[in-house]
């Protein structure tokens, strides 16, 4: 029986290995992690991450050919193929701080693999890593090999949170990069054989190592660039009276452009986009490509601008102050159908409002109070370190309350902000919400999911990103 081990039981490792176990019943799959609590959750009734369909897949395989364990060395030693899906945070100090990826955890994993291995292994990069990481890992393994042979493959994930299981079941493509040597090609084929259990052969793309590593960064950079492009247009739409939804629909009908990732919002989030673009910027700078680096920097700048613009619009609408005013925040996750809050735009919006001394009442159907309080207290990039190295849970902020009902969040509030596009927010009783709010009552739709005209008929003063401004907002100060 082929044995696979995945180091790292997070958003990538857990779901990916669960689907491999389901689709390949004759392969034994072990997911290992140093976090005792995380492994306990994977083995329990409440999985550590929320992803539609994941629980069903795990329960079908767990204990049969899918195992979650903290005995890392044992499972790595026994494995034929070792996936490495550890954190690659942005460096916060030293060379490349604020842009370069910190490969501390990757290097540690590589050294551990070299120490415990007693047989030849295929080592697969599953984390998003800088170009040429494979070369560094290869050197560590080779110089500590004790005559054991390793082949390094790059197999980046292209999952979208909220649809990860469907993405794994029916991927656009599976990308495998390896050395262009007979041994490298044999390793590629071995991994290809795993995916071929359910992925059509024409969707399994093979490349050299560096192309595979760069393709992941490039894919995320291109997607983020589309979001920043339409968000830049949303600011112009508000200034001119155009409607960004209509503009997006019109340009999306061009087959060369297409409609996806053209929804204007308060900004992009998630664990990859910003981190990967910063990484790309650093790689460009290291290779003397200043103009290329500056181009990708602008994608991040526009995203930050969009979040700042949203906060400024809220403050300026409310007579230029939100001090002491209750603001309801509906949605904290970076997108619907996930509990993930990494780099969610809600963090910056909330911090901006707290900086003006607002009182926040936050509701999200999948994010816990502890996670929200942690996110609002953490420094930038702290979130991407293993949980045991993150700051301990802080005392609850007196300015922030977390509730489990949208109506409670909005009760006696001056304004309501929609920051995640959860479906339930589209069908709330907004008349009831209006009746229980302070007047004038404001709604700031950061996801363009609400019927603006109906809300205005109820009596709300509505701001929806990229939509024509109503007279109230036209009369407030211009925001940058």
From TrEMBL:
Q: What is its EC number?
A: 1.1.1.22
Pathway linked to the protein: Nucleotide-sugar biosynthesis; UDP-alpha-D-glucuronate biosynthesis; UDP-alpha-D-glucuronate from UDP-alpha-D-glucose: step 1/1
Please state what class of enzyme this protein is: oxidoreductase
GO CC annotation terms, alphabetical:
nucleus
Question: What keywords appear on the UniProt entry?
Answer: NAD, Oxidoreductase
Any one GO MF term held by the record is: NAD binding
Question: Source organism's superkingdom?
Answer: Eukaryota
Where's the active site on this chain? 272
Boundaries of every UDP-glucose/GDP-mannose dehydrogenase C-terminal domain copy: 328-452
What residues bind NAD(+), as annotated? Answer: 8-13, 33, 38, 86-90, 127-128, 161, 272-275, 342
The record lists the catalysed reaction(s) as: UDP-alpha-D-glucose + 2 NAD(+) + H2O = UDP-alpha-D-glucuronate + 2 NADH + 3 H(+)
Biological process according to GO: glycosaminoglycan biosynthetic process; UDP-glucuronate biosynthetic process
* NCBIfam families with a match to the protein in the record: NDP-sugDHase (TIGR03026)
The similarity annotation says: Belongs to the UDP-glucose/GDP-mannose dehydrogenase family.
Q: What is this protein called?
A: UDP-glucose 6-dehydrogenase
Q: Give the source species.
A: Citrus x changshan-huyou
């Amino acid at each position: 029986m082929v044995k696979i081990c995945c180091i790292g039981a997070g958003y990538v490792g857990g779901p990916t290995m669960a689907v491999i176990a389901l689709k390949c019943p004759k392969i034994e799959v072990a997911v290992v992690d140093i976090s005792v609590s995380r492994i306990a959750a994977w083995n329990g009734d409440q999985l550590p991450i929320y992803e539609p369909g994941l629980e069903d897949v795990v329960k079908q395989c767990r204990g049969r050919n899918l195992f979650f364990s903290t005995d890392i060395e044992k499972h790595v030693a026994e494995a034929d193929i070792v996936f490495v899906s550890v954190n690659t945070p942005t460096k916060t100090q030293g060379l490349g701080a604020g842009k370069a990826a910190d490969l501390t955890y990757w290097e540690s994993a590589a050294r551990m693999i070299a120490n415990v291995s007693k047989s030849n292994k295929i080592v697969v990069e599953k984390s998003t890593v800088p170009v040429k990481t494979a070369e560094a890992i290869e050197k560590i393994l080779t110089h500590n090999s004790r005559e054991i042979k390793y082949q390094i493959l790059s197999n980046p994930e292209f999952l979208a949170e909220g649809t990860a299981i469907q993405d794994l079941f029916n991927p656009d493509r599976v990308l495998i990069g390896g050395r262009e040597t007979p041994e490298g090609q044999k390793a590629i084929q071995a991994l290809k054989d795993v995916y071929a259990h359910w992925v059509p052969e024409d969707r399994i793309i093979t490349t050299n190592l560096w192309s595979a590593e760069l393709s992941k960064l490039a894919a995320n950079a291109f997607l983020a660039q589309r979001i920043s492009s339409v968000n830049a247009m949303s600011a112009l739409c508000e200034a001119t009276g155009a409607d960004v939804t209509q503009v997006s629909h019109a340009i999306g009908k061009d087959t060369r452009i297409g409609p996806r990732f053209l929804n204007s919002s308060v900004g992009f989030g998630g664990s990859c986009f910003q981190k990967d673009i910063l990484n790309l910027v650093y790689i460009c700078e290291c290779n003397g490509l200043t103009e290329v680096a500056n181009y990708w920097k602008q994608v991040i700048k526009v995203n930050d601008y969009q979040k700042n613009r949203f906060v400024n619009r809220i403050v300026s609408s409310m007579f230029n102050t939100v001090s002491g005013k209750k603001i309801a925040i509906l949605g904290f996750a970076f997108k619907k159908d996930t509990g993930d809050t990494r780099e969610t735009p809600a963090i910056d919006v909330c911090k901006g409002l707290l900086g003006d001394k607002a009182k926040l009442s936050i509701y999200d159907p999948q994010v816990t109070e502890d996670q929200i309080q942690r996110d609002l207290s953490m420094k930038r990039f702290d979130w991407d370190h293993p949980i045991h190295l993150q700051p301990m849970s802080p005392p609850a902020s007196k300015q922030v309350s977390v509730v489990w009902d949208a109506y409670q969040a909005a009760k006696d509030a001056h304004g309501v902000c929609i920051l995640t596009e959860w479906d339930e927010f589209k069908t709330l009783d907004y008349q009831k919400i209006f009746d229980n709010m302070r007047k004038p009552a404001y709604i700031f739709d950061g996801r363009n999911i609400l019927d603006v005209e109906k809300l205005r008929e109820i009596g709300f003063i509505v701001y929806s990103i990229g939509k024509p401004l109503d007279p109230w907002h036209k009369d407030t100060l211009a925001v940058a």
